Amino acid sequence: YSVSPAGIFVPPDSPVKEPGDLAGVPISVGYQSGSHYSTIQALEQYLKPEQIQLSFRDGLLFKRMELLIDGKVPAAALFSGPYYFMEQLGFRKIIDTTFMMASMLTGDPDLEDVRKYFRALRRAQRDLDLRPERFTHYYKKEFPARFHPLMDTRRWGPGERIVFEPYTREVFEESFEWIARHHIFPEGEMGSGKYDEAVVSLADCSR
Question: 42, 77, 101 — which closes off a domain?
Answer without folding.
Answer: 101
